[in-house]
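ENTRY TYPE: protein
CONTENTS: sequence, structure tokens:
***
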Amino acid sequence: MTGPRLAAGRARALGLPTRGTTNPNRLRRMDNWIAAVLGPVLRAATEPLVVDLGYGASPVTTVELLHRLRAVRADVRVVGIEIDRDRVSTAEPAACPPHLTFAHGGFELAGLRPVLVRAANVLRQYDEDAAARAWVTLQQRLAPGGVLVEGTCDELGRRAAWVGLDRHGPRSLTLACRVADLATPSELAARLPKALIHPNVPGRSVHALLRDLDDGWAAAAPLGAFGARQRWVAACRAVAQRWNADVRRARHGEITVPWSAVSPSPT
């Protein structure tokens, strides 16, 4: 989206265009997590409707999302939504795969009630208050039992963070990375959601989580001889009990903690 960064209080109801930049496979980490962790939600849905919000100048990652989710449920329907009408017009010829369409819209999701929404690299341009309001708007559009996955990643998708939300609020924070490129886990702070960027200071929970991951990473340095993945898994396991973390996907470079553990409040 090419528009300027929003000043406080200037967010519009439908949102603003993103810069539009994307790359093939940029969102594969988020997609794989969605398929693995939220697969039961998709399989249980009466109507398996998924929205990819703000897919950008190219629909490539929307097409990839469809293919990855069809492995979970063959009749899944994906709708790519963009606030830029030109991007919708450009993407429409790409709607060749079955069950893939594109629509003009924003945070109101073009009137749809999806069971799953992926909003990747959409809210980065908003200030904290505007991003929080966008969360609420998106949550209200979810189908019963639906989930919103909102987060950001770098240009190549090697470092990412996302929040899982249902209609009642945020439920989890996931940090994900290509561990071979990682110097310290706290480098993932650059990808935190808006709600956690300013609280990432000493005395706050999210800062303590990243500090503990760094400590675990340092303690597991000898395992680096067997590869960065083994070192990352050990670091995640070292913090798992204190943070009630889900480390079952640690070998994929991920760790998930309950939102209550990092909610923006003093420790």
The radius of gyration is 18 Å. The first helix runs from residue 28 to 37. Residues 178-258 form one domain.
